[in-house]
Amino acid sequence: MPHIDYYFSTISPFSYLAGTRMEEIAGKHGVSVTYKPYDLMAAFPRTGGTPPAERFEGRLVYRLQLLARTAKKLGMPINLKPAHFPTNAAPSSYAIIAAQSAGGGDMAALTHGILRACWAEEKDIAQDDVIRDCLSAAGFDPSLADSGLLAGAETYATNLEDAVSHGVFGSPFYITDGDERFWGQDSLEDLDLHLSGKL
Q1: Most buried of the four, 18, 59, 147, 150, by CB within 10 Å?
Q2: For position 96, which CATH number holds?
Q3: DSSP string, 51-78
Q4: Number of folded domains that form the chain
C-alpha cells in the first residue's frame, strides 16, 4: 500500500490550515499515513530555519497577511495572535503518538482538533484538560494524555531525527514512500496529483 509520512508541529498555523485535506487525499488514493509530530523549533537551527520570533520584521508581517488570506480563502476561523502561542508542543504530540499506537479513534479529527484548539479556540494545548477533550472528541481514551509518556517522549525525539535526516524543514511536510516531498498546506494539490500519477 502506498504510504505518506506526515511531519508536523502541533503549534503550526499552516498545519492547522491544512485541515483534514491530506487525510481526504490519502483516503481517495488508498494511501496509509503515519503521523510524525516533531519539535519544529529544535529543527530550525539544524535545517536552515529561523524561529518566528527571530525573523526579519517584513517576514513576520507577510506571514500574518498570508495566514489571514489563506484562512479566508479556506473559510476557516483563525486567531492570528493566539493567547497561547508559542506553547509547549510536546504534551499534545505525546498524546497523538499514544493515540496512533493505541488505535480506535479518528487520527485526522484528533490532530486537527488539537491544531484548531490552538489557532481558533484560544486554548492552551499544553494543558492536560485540553488534550483530554481533544482525545475524547476524536474517539480516543482521554487517559492517553497520561499513559505512554515515556514512549511518547522517545518517539517525539526519534521523529525529530527522522525529520532532519529525511530533509524535512517545516510544517506541514509530507513524504511519500517514493521520497517525493511536499511542504506546506498549499502543496496538497500537488500531492493529490502525484498520487494520481499526473505529476
Answers
A1: 18
A2: 3.40.30.10
A3: -GGGS-HHHHHHHHHHHHHHHHHHT---
A4: 1
Q: Which three cell numbers stand for residue 56?
A: 526579519
pTM reported for the whole predicted model? 0.96
Domain range enclosing 165 = 3-195
Helices (H) and strands (E) in the chain, counts: 9, 4
Q: Within a 10 A sphere around the Cβ of 135, how many other Cβ atoms?
A: 26
Amino acid at 13: P
Would the pLDDT of 51 be above 90?
Answer: no
Q: Which cell goes with 85?
A: 502561542
pLDDT at 52 over 90: no
Q: Helix, strand, or coil here: 168?
A: coil
Contact assessment for residue 1 and residue 34, using Cβ atoms and an 8 Å cutoff: no
Instruction: Identify the sign of the CA torsion 61, 93, 44, 87.
Output: positive
CA distance 67 to 82: 13
Question: In this structure, how many other beta carbons lie within 10 angstroms of the beta carbon of residue 14?
Answer: 22
